[in-house]
Amino acid sequence: MSSSPLEPSPFPAPSPAPSPAPLAAVRAGVPERGDPPKYFQVKQKIDAVLDELGQGTPLPTEREFAERFGVSRMTVRQAIRELRLEGRVQRSGRSTVAAGPKLVQPLTLASYTEGVRRQGRRPGRQLIVFEQVGADAALAAGLRIAVGAPVLHLERLLLADDERVGLESTYLSVARFPALADEFDPTTSLYAFLRGSGVIFADADERIETVLASPREVQLIGTSPALPMLLMNRVTRDREGLPVECVRALYRGDRFSFTAHLVGEE
Asked: Where do Pro residues bias regions lie (predicted)?
């Protein structure tokens, strides 16, 4: 026998679709349903404290934050961990201190030195490796030379006000720059040297992705193995379309951001 139309349906009525969260709530990190996680609320409160602290000022201890906000030290530790990944705080000795603003590097054919100086910081480079190697298949293709042809490999730490912020490897053809190893001071700008040698940079292909540093890179840069890094690979060419350099540069994700100027199609 069929059920009477007045009998309740054996299937529950569908739940109404949740209304979209207000834009302000979304910006504040509130999920679609419910309140944000406790660590995120603490993170926002500590972030507000950071706005009042000067660069390099030590933060209150985890215990002090836990007592102030009525949460566990584990919750405070997770909040500070995320703020460190975002570059808002950093380690200094045994303390956690307020970090300064990130270095903003434009995606242009300007050197690292020029970009840092424009922001009122003091650029520096520390030589790690200056050697001659044979080109592997990837380098040979990038520099348009034969596999095994001699290549200069220049690896340097990138500094900003003596702070280690990145690691850069540059590869150049020995046949094109035979005097580079004898005449170039590796603590100075390579782009300035090459321009002084008559090189005119015209264009480049560049790829940027997020990676984790290798154990060797972690040791050289002095960062955490869990800290996201920005990896940039670039091939730069001159006005004749000939490759000048292949570059692999690793930047600390908590200390760097990149900008680009975009124009619309005609």
From this structure: 7-21
Gap between the Cα atoms of 184 and 189, Å rounded: 9
Q: How confident is the model at residue 112 (pLDDT cuts 50, 70, 90)?
A: confident
Identity of the residue numbered 82: E
Contact between residue 258 and residue 208 where contact means Cβ atoms under 8 Å apart: yes
Quick count: other Cβ atoms within 10 Å of Cβ 162?
Answer: 8
Q: Chain centroid to CA 142: how far?
A: 24
Write down the pTM of the prediction: 0.73
Cβ 111 vs Cβ 124: under 8 Å: no
The domains of the chain, with CATH numbers, are 23-98 (1.10.10.10), 103-259 (3.40.1410.10)
pLDDT of res. 184 = 95
Length of the chain: 266
